Amino acid sequence: MTHPTKAVFKLLLADYVKVSHHAEDMLYDEKDLQACLDKIERINYHEELNVNGIKFRCYNAGHVLGAAMFMFDIAGVKVLYTGDFSKHDDRHLVGAEVPSYSPDVLIVESTYGIQIHEERVKRESRFTQFVHRTVSQGGRCLIPVFALGRAQELLLILEEYWNEHPELQTVPIYYASSLAKRCMTIFQTYINMMNKKIQREYEVSNPFVFKHIHNLKSAEHLNDSGPVVVMASPAMLQSGLSRQLFEKWASDSKNGIIIPGYCVEGTLAKTIMSTPPTITTTNGIEIPFRMPVEYTSFSAHSDYAQTSEFIRDTKPKYIVLVHGDPQEMQRLKSKLTEEHADRIQIFTPRNCETVELKFQGEKMAKIVGALASEKLKDGDVVTGMLISKDFDHSVISADDLMKFTDLTTHTITQRQLLPFRNTFGLLVHLIEQVYENRKVYRERLTIVVHGLVTLTVIKHDSLNKQEYRASGDVLSIEWNSEPVSDMIADSLLTLILQMESNPAILHTQPQDESNHEEFENIDIILRLLKHRFTQVEFDTDSNEFRLTVDNVSAVINHRTKEITCENKDIHDQLKGILRRIEKALYPLE
Question: How far apart are CA 323 and CA 315, in angstroms?
């Protein structure tokens, strides 16, 4: 809501709570009202908001203070909902504005159908002359109005007319509405949302602080023994003070009543416009009806001329007519069809009827981030992630995901544990037959394939029994889930399961038993060295053991048994240890 709309909304609903306080069918109470107010978000004209990808902004509708039209943008389809609007300036408001871009769909009111409003100067003249004539002959003039909206316009007209006619200044004007009195502070506050004339007057004095118009608390405070002008609600004369005064004054031809706006069929205000000879009071008594009736429409709803002009200015593809009598709506549709048949399709749905419209448009995706760093040519292939949010699409690299979106990346690590009854040496041999890119860490009993999948033999004595219960060793296969890693892990898993179920697979490539024993011996030597020294590893490419002893590096060539070490003491120590290991492994040699 706009700022003044929320302020008026609060007072209107609070007034309902007040008058309905003891009613059994009360729709809501003070707590409900406050909960509702807390959820209202205020918006300024031309401010754009985004709610779940639906963009909308509001424009001045010119109907009442704070009234707004809303332009919605849903996936590129623009829908303008006018609500009640008026393109004509009046004494305090600026007429409805035309949005800067055309909507695809225009939802517009059809309240007055094909009727044309009277010019403002003429209707103001008829209004003031009727009031003047009525009070000059000693009569009482009743003007039934809504508490807000056109009432403030009429107050400005009467105040100006009384200032210009001193002979009338002894005749009191009353505005009989406590709600309207409270709302008047809102009009006095939001002068900045009114026309330039009001703003200039405000620099001298507040135009809504009246000299000749007074608030009337109740009918008991009204002295109607002489001429008087009373503006009272409700506008349709259903009940309340306006109905009470109407029944009191209806039989005197000196009195008069002005109907200043639209009247709904079936209401008393609509009935008396045909000047019936009698009317029925709220008590069921039929009384003569002699007071003159003047209909002067000050309605701030659009007429045919305004609606047609607004359609020409906005250039929509589709029009949906709402807020009108069905017959008036059809007349308006027929006339608009004659005028715009070549380019606009018009709908007149009944209440709750669905209107289905289809739109086809290209989906555009913006390339952002690192992918946009190079200029692209027609036919270039761009690889990235397609991100869709709020009906907008963009292509970005995974590395830019956190930079340009609210999304974050997560890594899913998969791990499988298998019973393993073979040796680590045989596993290394099997992997070497299939995968060229592998790294063997014998001290950790680990093999890394293509830098993506890690295989580790977990000895039974170091196995976490709560994690995996097994009678022997376990082989762990671990990888970060993504297409290539998943493919490699699947192939390794298949290969290992075949090895466990069919040992003959180990002989698919040329090998001999001595080769098998050699792998076993390397494992044994590695474990014995690690038992004595903490920093030990075996490099499969160079076939060397690499050690660090007291911050001194040493290398043992497995094939030649040659020891390379700058420190003689450590060299001799390693030589003695290696000799004892050799005797244990090859006693007959």
Answer: 21
Picking from 84, 113, 105, the residue whose alpha carbon sits closest to that of residue 315 is: 105
Contacts of 444 (CB under 8 A, 6+ apart): 456
Question: Can you tell me the mean pLDDT for 209-230?
Answer: 89
CA 543 to chain centre: 65
| Element spanning 279, H or E | strand 278-280
Any catalytic annotation for residue 410? no
| pLDDT at residue number 467 | 61
What's phi and psi for 568, nearest 5 deg?
-65, -40
Q: Are 300 and 86 in contact (CB under 8 A)?
A: yes
Chain position carrying tokens 């007055």: 112
In which residue are the tokens 């606009």 written? Answer: 344
Beta bridge partners of 546: 537, 555
Band of the pLDDT at 400, cuts 50, 70, 90?
confident
Distance, CA of 274 to CA of 252 (rounded, Å): 17
State pLDDT tens for residues 270-279: 999 999 999 9
Task: Kindly list the distances between the CA atom of residue 188 and the CA atoms of 179, 192, 194, in Å, as whole numbers in the listed order.
Answer: 15, 10, 10
Q: Report how far residue 289's alpha carbon sits from residue 247's, in angstroms, rounded to the nearest whole number.
A: 9
Q: How many CB atoms lie within 10 A of CB 155?
A: 25
Q: Which two tokens stand for residue 191?
A: 């002068």
Task: Give every CB contact of residue 500 below 8 A, 6+ residues apart in sequence.
Answer: 418, 419, 420, 421, 422
Estimate the crossing angle of helix 120-136 against helix 150-164, to 10 degrees.
Answer: 60
CA–CA distance, 233 with 224 (Å, rounded to integer): 17
Angle among Cα 239, 242, 243 to the nearest 5 degrees reads 45
In DSSP notation, 145-194 reads --SSSHHHHHHHHHHHHHHH-GGGTTS-EEEE-HHHHHHHHHHHH-GGGS
How many residues are given for the chain?
Answer: 589
Q: Is 14 exposed, middle or buried (0-12, 13-18, 19+ CB in 10 A)?
A: middle
Residue appearing with tokens 């060539």: 557
Name the pTM for this structure: 0.66
DSSP 45: B
Catalytic residue among 301, 393, 429, 516: 301
Place of tokens 């000196």: 254
Contact status, residue 215 vs residue 161, Cβ threshold 8 Å: no
Tokens representing 25 are 């069918």
Among 121, 144, 119, 142, which residue's Cα sits nearest to residue 130?
Answer: 142
* Residue pLDDT, tens place only, 520-546: 777 778 878 877 787 888 887 788 889
Q: Which residues are within 8 A (CB) of 574 and not within 5 positions of it... i.e. 6 or more apart?
A: 547, 549, 554, 556, 563, 565
Q: Are 266 and 195 in contact (CB under 8 A)?
A: no
Give the span between the Cα atoms of 570 and 380, in whole angstroms: 62
